[in-house]
Design goal:
CATH topology of the largest domain: Clc chloride channel
Number of domains: 2
Distance between the termini: 30 Å
Oligomer: single chain
Number of helices: 23
CATH architecture of the largest domain: Orthogonal Bundle
Largest sheet: 3 strands, antiparallel
Radius of gyration: 31 Å
Order of helices and strands: HHEHHHHHHHHHHEHHHHHHHEEHHEHEEH
Strand content: under 5%
Length: 581
């Protein structure tokens, strides 16, 4: 007990420096992102995207792009730079950073600080040059890399390394989105579709809160988005509208998942040099950006405008068209090997979905029945939950980003519908597993679970070879050699177990005396037996306590009637059949 308390305290203390370093790198990433955006989009394309309230977005914004048709060239150049850096220095920095961290958690793969720093640079270039990508991917991988680096440096156990990896992942998210509680929950939820990494929850909270405090010292503590939503009225029209939003969100999420993996497979099979793939993807994403500004960069500023009900520069048909175009842009950017994350673009897709439905419903009803800000936020939550199967962390994350806690009732309604309709078969995170029992990291837990749920009668050998007490040792030896067995139960005339003879017992008898020596003279009397309804974990404990390799199975301990025999080999074969060893 004392040792366990020490281990918990050690991880909590280590979560603090993980949070500090994650917070500092989050600040570095945000500054790099601003620099890259001004360099590529501002100076070359002549486009300054709107910003959300928490990053300096003002009340007024004038939309203008000087050189719109240079956008594909700029996004292609950004993709080429990323392709070169990734190919030469760190292949793991390509694609969705959160997914790389999830894979490293389950399979014990290394994530170094070099990979984390390079992820910061490549993601800033990808997003800053106009690629549709998110901030959570780079910061998840950066934080996870910091946690894993601490674990390696201090020579911690694999379990401790993984907990720090998860804590670092949550810290990165909490810092970059100014959402410390969501970061803590995400550190436990993101690895599975319907389970939690409970051990990482408290270290994740500590690390995420520390990272939020450190990052906020430089960039402020204001929420990312400013909203003016009010507590819902629960009218029939509103309830019906949010039910429809949940249904639509599920289909949008499924379409996004399908498109993302289709494009990813297309680029995987594309017969060109890996360095060039992000450039091609960037070029195609740039074409999407020509069609709609919502497909350029992370577009949080546009979502901020939707939350305020401002649709000045975008017509309803263009907003509606932006949903598939942003999905394509996301798929081209990340599916080709560009760097970043899926969370940001997924939120944008969800926000557009909610905003579109608010416009449509208000037009049909002839008045402002639906608050555009509320529907935009709920759309963000519903689509990403359906696409990533992380309902709890998503709803808290968006609530913290917007301080729109009044949206929770309708958000829960829409989220539950979207999450259940979308299902758990496939998410945007390729390496996200269903639950802990599927994770190689928890393989020992899986063994214990299987052993505890399987019964002796399912595994035992029923056609048992048994001997009478007066049988000779030579007969026992010949049976063992012929049948390749190492133990034979000894039973009386009533088929009651009275002993057991093993190979080691037989070998103690001199060869010339085997024919005349009876098995009752060398057997182990009253051997430990097991019942058919025992679970295999109980049997393994018996084997471990007494050093046995096998045990007779009896109908009950009163009659001691032999019904089978079970051995370590039987249990091992069962575990192999279940694919756990």
């Amino acid at each position: 007990m004392i040792k366990e308390i020490y281990e918990i305290r050690k991880l909590l203390l280590l979560s603090i420096p993980v949070g500090i370093l994650s917070g500092l790198l989050a600040v570095g990433f945000l500054y790099s992102l601003d620099f890259s955006t001004n360099l590529f989009l501002g100076n070359i394309v002549g486009y300054h995207p709107p910003k959300p309230f928490g990053e300096g977005g003002g009340e007024t914004y004038v939309f203008f792009i000087s050189h719109r048709f240079l956008l594909p060239l700029v996004t292609a150049i950004g993709g080429l730079i990323v392709g070169i850096l990734v190919y030469l220095f760190a292949p793991e920095a390509a694609g969705v950073g959160t997914d790389v961290a999830i894979k490293a958690f389950h399979y014990g793969l290394p994530i170094g600080l070099k990979s984390s720093i390079l992820k910061l640079i490549t993601s800033a270039i990808t997003i800053g040059s106009g690629g549709s990508s998110g901030r959570e991917g780079p910061m998840a991988l950066i934080g996870a890399g910091i946690g894993r680096w601490f674990g390696e440096a201090l020579k911690l156990t694999q379990e401790e390394k993984n907990i720090l990896l998860a804590a670092g992942l949550g810290a990165g998210i909490g810092a970059v989105f100014r959402a410390p509680f969501a970061g803590g929950i995400l550190s436990a939820e993101v690895f599975y579709k319907e389970d939690f990494e409970v051990e990482a929850l408290i270290p994740g909270f500590v690390s995420s809160i520390v990272a939020y405090i450190v990052a906020g010292f430089f960039v402020g503590y204001e929420p990312l988005f400013k909203t003016e939503v009010v507590f819902p009225k629960f009218t029939t029209e509103e309830i019906a509208g949010y039910i429809v939003l949940g249904i639509v969100s599920a289909f949008i999420a499924k379409f996004m998942i399908f498109t993302f993996y289709s494009v990813k497979n297309l680029f995987k099979n594309l017969k060109i040099h890996p360095i060039l793939k992000p450039a091609v993807g960037g070029f195609l994403a740039g074409i999407c950006g020509i069609l709609t500004p919502l497909a350029v960069g992370n577009s949080y500023g546009w979502i901020q405008m939707f939350m305020k009900g401002e649709f000045l520069y975008l017509s309803f048909p263009l907003i509606l068209l932006s949903i598939p175009v942003v999905i394509l842009s996301l798929s081209f950017t990340l599916g080709s090997g560009g760097s970043g994350g899926v969370f940001g673009p997924s939120l944008v897709v969800g926000g557009i979905t909610g905003a579109s439905l608010s416009i449509l419903f208000n037009d049909l009803l002839g008045g402002p029945v639906f608050n555009p800000g509320m529907m935009t936020i709920v759309g963000m939550i519903s689509v990403f939950t359906a696409a990533a199967s992380a309902p709890l962390s998503t709803i808290i994350l968006v609530s913290e980003m917007t301080r729109g806690y009044d949206i929770l009732p309708y958000a829960l309604l829409s989220l539950v519908i979207a999450h259940n309709l979308a299902g758990f078969e496939k998410t945007l995170f390729e390496y996200q597993l269903l639950n802990r029992l599927e994770s190689p990291f928890h393989r020992d837990e899986l063994k214990a679970f299987i052993l505890k749920t399987a019964r002796v009668k399912e595994v035992m050998t029923r056609n048992v070879i048994a001997l009478h007490p007066n049988a000779s040792v030579l007969e026992a030896k010949e049976i063992m050699a012929k049948k390749f067995i190492a133990g034979i139960p000894i039973v009386n005339e009533k088929n009651q177990v009275i002993g057991i003879v093993t190979t080691s017992d037989v070998l103690k008898v001199e060869p010339e005396k085997m024919k005349t020596t009876k098995v009752f003279e060398i057997m182990t009397p009253k051997p430990a037996c097991v019942l058919p309804d025992w679970n295999l974990l109980e049997v393994m404990k018996l084997f471990a306590n007494y050093g046995y390799g096998r045990a007779p199975v009896v109908s009950d301990f009163e009659s001691m009637k032999l019904v089978g025999i079970i051995s370590r080999s039987d249990i091992a074969r069962y575990l192999i059949k279940k694919n756990v060893i």
